[in-house]
Amino acid sequence: MLELRDVSKSYRSIPAVQDVSFTLKAGEILGYLGPNGSGKSTTVKMVIGMIQPSKGKVFFAGKNIHDDLASYRAQLGYVPEEAQVYNHLSGLEYLQLVGRLRGMQEKLIERKARELLHLLSLEAAQYSALSDYSKGMKQRVLIAAALLHDPRLIVFDEPLSGLDATSARLFKDLLGLLAREGKAILYISHVMEVVERVCNRVIVLAKGKVVADAAPDDLTRLMELPTLESVFAQLVQQTDTARVAQQMVEVMKVHHA
Ligand SMILES: Nc1ncnc2c1ncn2[C@@H]1O[C@H](COP(=O)(O)OP(=O)(O)OP(=O)(O)O)[C@@H](O)[C@H]1O
Fold first, then answer.
1. Ligand 1: which of 18, 40, 51 to mutate, most ligand atoms within 8 Å of CB?
2. Is 2-75+151-252 a domain of CATH 3.40.50.300?
C-alpha cells in the first residue's frame, strides 16, 4: 500500500535520511525505531507529504504521493508526536474542522465526532477549549481526528506519550483491531516493549540508514538476544549509559573549580 523507494533527504547537503526503502502492506503494523536524530521524523514528514525527498519517491497504491497530494491525504490518518492543536477550539470544534478539511459531510462529522469523543471519555470536555485539556486528553483528540475519515494508512508518532494506563491499553487494543480491519500502520516509538508486542515488523534506523528490517521475533532470534531493546542497543551502538550516568553524577558533585 505504502512504498518508499530509495528515499533520501538532506538538509543543507547533510544527509538526514539515506536510501530508505520499505513497503507497508494492508493489515501490517510496522514499527519504525531509531535513536534521537536518526531520521525518524524526517521519514514521517516525507511519508505524510509535508516535505519532498531530495532523492527517491514515496508511493501510495502505486502512485507517487506528490502527483495528487490531496487525494493521498484523504486516505491518510496522522497522529503527530507533539499535540500542536488549535488551542482556542473545543475538542468537538477541532474534530469538525478536521472532518471538513477531509471533505466529509456535516452530519457524518457530527455523528462520528460525538461518538468518538464519548468512547474516548471526552464527552464532558467536548465544549471546553483544547488549551484546558491535559496532554493525554489532547492526545486522545488527535487519535480521534486521525480516525474520523476512516483512512487506509495511519501514521502514529509516539502515540502513547501522555496517555494514562487505561488510555494506553485502549490504544493498544485499538491498534490490533485497526490492523485486522486492513489498515496499514506506521508506528514510530522509543518504547521498545510496546513495539515488540504490537508490531509485526520493525525497521531500525541508525544515522539515517536502515540497519534492520524484520519481525521482532526474528531479530531477537537471529541476533541471539533476549529482547528487542537489547537488539536495538547492539544495532545502533548506543553509548554505555551506565558509565555516562556515573560520570554525570560525578560532575554534579564537583563543588570547586
Ligand atoms: N529542518 C531541519 N534542518 C536541518 N537539519 C535537520 C532538520 N530536521 C532534521 N534535521 C537533522 O536531520 C537529522 C535527523 O533528524 P530527525 O528529526 O529526522 O531525527 P529523529 O530520529 O526523528 O530524532 P528524535 O528521536 O530526536 O525525534 C538530525 O541530524 C537533525 O539534526
1. 40
2. yes
